[in-house]
């Protein structure tokens, strides 16, 4: 798939999911290239259709994008319950709708927002659909900088091959929370719940990119349009 076609499929999925947003909702806005199309469409609806919503952004980048489009934003100090979060994903397993997320660098805030949401919808192109998590993507793990080398060793003891996420400036990527990301290659995961359980108990790890049991629907853009997968 060429980049232009992939971009069109991402945009189609984002626009389709944006139509589920109704006035009066508190909406979680995701981070990443597909979520950016969602923010654009929500911004259009706010301006042209007078859609009345309040948004919670999963990253500073998304928040800046929303402000430029005059989308009203709130913080958790103002709103603790979110009606619907719409976000992208790096991999999606049909059926349980298990996800790998975090290659956009915002996995901690994305999981906090998803956890506070009544519903979560995912927007992806066809290339993100896999039979097993870890088939095409690594599992991002956000870690505190202090003692990260020790944390890395713990992750490798779980069977991961690890790489420090690097930024565009050639230095280690720093998240909005001031943390590092270690991209962990476990290979295709036979039991993602077991892997998530182990990652939940790694000292020094703040959060990981296995999103299990969060998504209820996935809007999947493809060459024939958008199909909707529901959690089963």
Show the helix and strand layout.
Layout: H1 3-18, E1 26-29, H2 33-48, E2 54-57, H3 60-68, E3 82-87, E4 91-93, E5 98-100, H4 107-115, E6 117-125, E7 139-143, H5 148-157, E8 161-164, E9 180-185, H6 192-200, E10 205-208, E11 210-211, E12 217-222, E13 225-230
Helix pairs in contact: 1-2
How many angstroms does the end-to-end distance come to? 29 Å
Instruction: Quickly count the domains.
Output: 2
In CATH, what is the class of the largest domain?
Answer: Alpha Beta
Question: Which second-level CATH architecture of the largest domain applies?
Answer: 3-Layer(aba) Sandwich
**Largest sheet, if any?**
6 strands, mixed
Strand order, main sheet: write it out. 2-1-3-6-12-13
What global shape is seen?
globular
The count of strands amounts to 13
Order of helices and strands: HEHEHEEEHEEHEEHEEEE
Residues in helix, %: 25-40%
Helix tally?
6
Low-confidence stretches: none
Compute the CA-based radius of gyration: 17 Å
Predict the CATH topology of the largest domain.
Rossmann fold
Given helix and strand content, the structural type is: alpha/beta
Q: Whole-number average pLDDT?
A: 97
Fraction of residues in β-strands = 25-35%
């Amino acid at each position: 798939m060429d980049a232009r076609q992939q971009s069109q499929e991402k945009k189609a999925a984002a626009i389709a999911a944006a139509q589920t947003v109704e006035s009066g909702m508190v909406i979680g806005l995701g981070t990443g290239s597909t979520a950016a199309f969602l923010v654009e469409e929500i911004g259009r609806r706010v301006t042209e259709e007078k859609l009345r919503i309040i948004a919670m952004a999963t990253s500073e980048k998304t928040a800046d994008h929303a402000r430029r489009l005059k989308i009203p934003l709130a913080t958790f100090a103002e709103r603790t319950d979110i009606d619907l979060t719409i976000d992208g994903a790096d991999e999606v397993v049909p059926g349980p709708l298990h996800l790998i997320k975090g290659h956009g660098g915002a996995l901690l805030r994305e999981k906090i927002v998803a956890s506070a949401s009544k519903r979560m919808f995912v927007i992806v192109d066809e290339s993100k659909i896999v039979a097993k998590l870890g088939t095409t993507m690594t599992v991002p793990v956000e870690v505190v900088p202090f003692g990260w080398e020790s944390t890395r060793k713990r992750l490798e003891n779980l069977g991961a091959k690890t790489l420090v996420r690097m930024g565009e400036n050639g230095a280690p990527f720093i998240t909005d929370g001031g943390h590092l990301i270690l991209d962990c290659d476990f290979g295709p995961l036979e039991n993602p719940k077991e892997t998530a359980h182990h990652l939940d108990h790694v000292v020094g790890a703040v959060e990981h990119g296995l999103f299990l049991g969060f998504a209820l629907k996935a809007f999947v853009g493809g060459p024939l349009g958008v199909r909707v997968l529901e959690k089963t």
